[in-house]
Write a structure and sequence with these properties.
heterodimer; A: alpha/beta; two-stranded parallel ribbon; 7 strands; globular; B: mainly alpha; 3-stranded antiparallel beta sheet
């Protein structure tokens, strides 16, 4: 499958699922999906034998800290509080083409379905996503730590931007 | 995993192996459930050499990050720096000059030669064939010396900068590399013959840990592990980067899928590396070694994939427009290949497991990437300034 065929094939597979498909760079397609559609999208790629799961990347998008209004400025209507978000990127590669499925969930409801039923090799990536970003991966066949120590404190997620190290002993 | 067996009172015994690793001198923990001598299930626990590098680079500037990322792996350091540099160049909208791209490939292929010879020694050792282990590591010193002569280092070559490479190749170095390759090529022919004709070694490799092409596809295997199962997956050919468009490689594919095929695939790849290295030295493009790149990298995201000795190495980079990366995600090839070992282990004899683990040429530092530092004072982490101070004081003593 050449590059353009691979990319247009992926677009055909993902657009019917309501994914917002963009071309962020040469050889790449990004598809923004809702959490509910993730399994369908992975299944569509798998059934069409489109590539393989290259990686799962987690991204932390903390809500921007609200700026203080300039002194004397009219009190602006308060904006709804911005939410802290976690984005998971599922990268699939086929030759030179890379399709990225992007799913965003808020901290307050950081749940994603496991794709291990379709792609068994995803388990290590999902474990990493769970312990580094604090995402609950529902239906993952193996729980527990993969990379962090067994006695790692609960609720500390190293790859969130707010994490700057564990509290020092005795502090 | 031990709790998911539905049978009543299964005859099962779990053998915990590691973190002192059964095959390689790196830490990993495995729980192998056995029925008699036959493996019924296997699971892995990684993280013993987790160093927090992905988080660590978020506090570095774009150039400093190279040095940290290059230390993810002590075997294939150059591919990490290459993947990262190419990714940052994509974000910055620059391209390294052709001569730099060719030198990147030159170092990458020399690195592949050293890595594959290292692996051959490890595989021979696990197979109880220490003579082959000693010989292959002796010969590996040839390529290590060449790399040291070229870059100044045996392992962390530090060849890349963002926008190009640091050093040129002199005529004397070219001659030395060509002389070294001549010896290595002869030796590789010999090892290929030994590995495919020696009865004791074949007894440990032929028909062991066979992975079909179908399984390799499903499990997402990469590199020689996939190519030994008939899956022609090689980033150098699929999505050529650096100097590979000008110096294309032929993908080496074996079809048997067992450990012997993994040995043969890697040995045949060595010949392809020798050929590419000679071609680069003969046709090294003239010109500059690097282009200037601004300290601030425009906001955006880039994916950079390169073929490490163990398979596809995947980098995802995100810039928020500042002087340091917003996110660097590294997915190393060993991580892809674990699934193949853990899935294929059941049904094999326990004694075959170390060989099967060695078969994918796993790299633990690569998997883990992040260690908690414990100092007498109870502190678990060091700031960059503290680490720098520690280093200066250490060498002053």
């Amino acid at each position: 499958m050449d590059l353009e065929t691979a990319l247009s094939r992926a677009r055909e597979l993902l657009e019917p699922l309501g994914a917002a498909v963009t071309r962020p760079g040469p050889g790449r397609i990004d598809a923004v999906l809702s959490r509910e559609k993730l399994i369908h999208a992975v299944g569509a790629l798998k059934d069409a034998r489109w590539g393989y799961l290259s990686a799962i990347t987690g991204l932390d998008h903390p809500a921007p800290t609200p700026k203080k209004p300039a002194p004397g400025a009219a009190e602006a209507a308060p904006l709804p509080p911005a939410e802290n978000l976690i984005e998971a990127l599922y990268h699939f590669s086929e030759g030179a083409a890379v399709v990225t499925l992007r799913v965003t969930v808020p901290y307050s409801d950081a749940r994603l379905p496991s794709i291990c039923g379709l792609v068994p090799s995803a388990v290590l990536y999902e474990q990493e996503l769970a312990e580094m970003f604090g995402v609950t991966v529902e239906g993952i066949p193996v729980t527990g730590h993969l990379l962090l120590p067994d006695d790692w404190p609960a609720g500390q997620y190293p790859l969130r931007k707010s994490f700057t190290g564990l509290p020092r002993a005795g502090a | 995993m031990a709790t998911t067996q539905p049978q009543a009172a299964p005859k099962k015994f779990v053998v915990p192996i590691g973190p002192q690793h059964p095959a390689l001198k790196e830490p990993g923990h495995f729980e192998i459930a056995v029925d008699g001598e036959i493996v019924t299930s296997a699971s892995a626990r990684l993280g013993y050499v987790h160093r927090g590098i992905e988080k660590g680079v978020e506090g570095q500037n774009w150039a400093q990050a190279i040095y940290m990322l290059e230390r993810i792996c002590g075997i294939c350091s150059h591919v990490h720096a290459t993947a990262y540099a190419i990714g940052v160049e994509k974000l910055a909208g620059v391209t390294a000059p052709p001569r730099a791209q060719a030198i990147r490939v030159l170092v990458a292929e020399l690195e592949r030669v050293h890595s594959h010879l290292l692996w051959l020694g490890v595989a021979a050792h696990e197979g109880g064939f220490d003579t082959l282990f000693m010989y292959s590591w002796r010969d590996r010193e040839i390529v290590m010396d060449l790399l040291e002569d070229l870059t100044g280092n045996r392992v962390n070559y530090s060849a890349n900068v963002i926008g190009g490479v640091k050093f040129d190749v002199t005529d004397a170095q070219k001659d030395a590399i060509l002389r070294g390759l001549e010896i290595l090529e002869e030796r590789t022919k010999h090892y290929l013959k030994v590995a495919t004709t020696d009865d004791t070694f074949i007894g440990r490799t032929r028909g062991i840990g066979t992975m079909t092409a179908e399984q390799a596809q499903l499990l997402g295997a990469v590199g020689p592990t996939a190519r030994a199962s008939g899956v022609a997956r090689d980033v150098r050919a699929d999505a050529p980067y650096a100097g590979y468009p000008d110096f294309p490689v032929e993908v080496v594919v074996e079809t048997a899928g067992d450990l012997e095929a993994k040995v043969v695939a890697r040995m045949r790849e060595l010949f392809e590396s020798y050929r590419v290295i000679r071609e680069i030295l003969a046709k090294l493009p003239p010109g500059d070694l690097s282009v200037k790149v601004k300290a601030r990298v425009p906001a955006g995201e880039a994916i950079s994939r390169v073929e490490a000795p163990r398979g596809e190495l995947f980098y995802f980079l995100r810039s928020a427009g500042g002087t340091s990366p917003d996110r660097v995600k590294v997915r190393t090839p060993s991580l892809c290949n674990w699934a193949s070992v853990l899935t294929l282990a059941p049904g094999h004899k326990l004694a075959d497991i170390p060989m099967m683990i060695a078969g994918i040429d796993p790299c633990f530092s690569c998997n883990d990437r992040l260690v908690t530092l414990r100092r007498p004072g109870g502190d678990q982490t060091m700031t960059w300034a503290e680490l720098r101070r520690y280093g200066i004081d250490y060498y002053r003593k």
